[in-house]
Amino acid sequence: MIFIYLAFFFLILRFTVTLFNFISNPKLTPTSRKYHELVSILIPARNEQENIIPLLQSIQLQNYQQYEVFILDDNSTDETFKLCDAFSKNDNRFKVLKGEDLPQGWLGKNFACYQLAKTAKGKYLMFLDADETIASGLIDNAIHRMKIYHLSLLSLFTNQIMLTMGERMVVPLMHFLLLNLLPLRLVKLSKNPSFSAASGQFMLFDAANYHVNQWHEKVKNKVVEDVEIMKLIKSNGYTGEALLANGYIFCRMYKNFNEAINGFSKNILAGFNHNIWGLLFYLILVVGGPISIGYILGIQPLLFALSLIVLSRIMISLSSGQNAWLNVLLHPLQIAALVIISVMSIIKHFRKITSWKGRIIHST
C-alpha cells in the first residue's frame, strides 16, 4: 500500500504543478514598446541545408531591424555554407563563417556558440537553432522582458511543428515533462539553481554579462548545455527566466519517430541530472502508478487518477499550443515512447558514447 499512497501523492503533486503553470501562464507577452539596441543573432548550423533559409527569411521579416546575423557553418558536409553565403550576398546584415575544428573536450554546438559570441558586437546575444522560424515582434518582446526584470538570460521553449504520427508520439513529451514537473515561474522567482530550465533553441543573453562569464566555455562538455548555463547563472547570483514562446518561435525538431526517439534519448538522462535511479523511479510511478491504483483499489480511484492525467494533458497542450484531445488519445503511446527513450538513454550512458549529426559524443 505504501507504493499506492506514493503513486497518488506523486500524481496529485504533478497535477498541482501543471495547474500552477496553467494559471500562471508563463509565456512571452507582447509589448507596444520599441527598442533600438543592436542585437546579434547567432546561428550554429551543421548540415542544415533543408532548414536554414526559412529561418533567415523569417529574420528579415521582423519589424525589428537593428540586428546583425552571424551563421557559423560547423564543418557541414552538405550545402549549408553555400546556401548561407549566397543569401548573405543580398543582405549585408547577414554573414556566414567557417567554424574551426572541434577542440578536444568540447561538444560541437557549445564550441560553435562560443565562436559566434566572439564575433558579436550587439548589446544582446540571441542564439537560435537553424531549424526554426521566428514571428515578427519576437525581438522587441524579448528585449522588453530582459529590461524590466534585469535578466542575464531569457530562454524560450518554442512552439513545436509536428507533421507525422511518429513526431506526435514523441515531441509532445518535451512540454509534458517540463510543465508537469517544474513550476516554470520559479526559474525566475527562486534563487535555488535546482529550479532551472532552458531551451537551447532560444537563448537571449545580456552581452556584457556573457562576455565576462563566457557561459558556453564553462559548459563546453555538457550535452544539456542550456539547463547547465541557467544553473550557473542562478548560482552566480544573476537572474534568468524561462518562458513558453507563445507563437513567436516555431520549430520542427524531428522529421519522424526514429529521429525523435534518438534525439530525446540523447538528452533525457541529463535532464534528470544523470541520475539513473531517479529516472527509473519516475517511470515506475508514471507507468505503474495508475495501473496499480486500478488493480488494487478498483474502478473509482482509477477514474480519479485518469481524470487528473487527462486534465493535465489538456492544460499542458493548451499552454504549449498543441492539440489537446490528440495528446489525450496518444498519451499511452507517448508514455510507451518515453520508456523506450529512457532505456536507450541509459544504454548510451553505460556505453559512454553516442552520435549526433555525424559526430561522436562521449558522455561525461
In short:
The protein has 364 residues and is of the alpha/beta class. It folds into two domains: 2-24 and 260-351, no CATH class; 39-257, Spore Coat Polysaccharide Biosynthesis Protein SpsA, Chain A, CATH 3.90.550. 52% of the residues lie in helices and 15% in strands.
Task: Compile the SSE list and pairings.
Blueprint: H1 2-24, E1 39-45, H2 52-60, E2 67-73, H3 80-88, E3 94-98, H4 108-119, E4 124-128, E5 132-134, H5 138-149, E6 153-157, E7 159-160, H6 165-168, H7 173-181, H8 186-189, E8 202-206, H9 207-213, H10 215-218, H11 225-235, E9 240-244, E10 249-251, H12 257-271, H13 276-297, H14 299-320, H15 324-351, E11 353-356, E12 359-362
Parallel strand pairs: 1-2, 1-4, 2-3, 6-9, 7-10
Antiparallel strand pairs: 4-8, 5-10, 6-8, 11-12
Proportion in helices: 40-55%
Oligomerization status of the protein chains: single chain
Instruction: Identify the CATH class of the largest domain.
Output: Alpha Beta
Number of strands: 12
Sequence of strands across the biggest β-sheet: 3-2-1-4-8-6-9
Supply the CATH superfamily name of the largest domain. Answer: Spore Coat Polysaccharide Biosynthesis Protein SpsA, Chain A
Low-confidence stretches: none
Question: Quick check: average pLDDT?
Answer: 93
